[in-house]
Amino acid sequence: MRRPLFLQLLVLFVLVGSVFLSAAAPAPSTFAAKTKPTSVQAMVENRTTKPIILQLKGPAYYYFTVTAQSVTPFPVKRGVYTLTLTACGMTATAPLDLTIQRRLIMPICGGNAKQAAKTNPSVIDLSTIVKVVRITVRNKATTAMTVILSGPATYVFSLNKNETKEYTVGKGRYTVYYYVCGKYATRAFIADFDKKLELSCPAQ
Prior knowledge:
Layout: H1 2-24, E1 39-46, E2 52-57, E3 61-66, E4 70-77, E5 79-87, E6 90-98, E7 102-106, H2 114-119, E8 123-125, E9 132-139, E10 145-150, E11 154-159, E12 164-170, E13 172-180, E14 183-191, E15 195-199
Parallel strand pairs: 1-7, 7-8, 9-15
Antiparallel strand pairs: 1-4, 2-3, 2-5, 5-6, 9-12, 10-11, 10-13, 13-14
């Protein structure tokens, strides 16, 4: 009589144990690795009055053109890239982290998007890559003047006598070539925020 009772208890023990083990075992999907999407979206906002060009080199290669005063989304492969940006008459290169969704803002030439970048960590102010500043050029001569700035980029300006104009140029050091009063002359100039370039007839 003891053997059947022993077998019954053994079977009961096995059944109860299997119930506890199945309850303790995690479902296969509970700890499944959560993989990140392989692509992210780069939202490019061009606030300038002309198209801008972005080239990305990294996990993949991309070439984008964004029309003036528009916002365009671009899906790209997640990763870190080298960005070559052409905007406001300048071309510059910088690293670009696209491991998360980004909004890239190119402000009006000579402006910035510092506030947007400060309040939202996913925003990148592209004016920190292409550094463009507003300068004032004044013709103090009594004749018309042609001015060429040669440096980070090249610019050609024409001013009437006693005329003053504002321009946006790439920040940096320039050699100024100018023709006025029937003569050519040169001088150095460092373009920075709100700098003034005043030119007059060359000395005899």
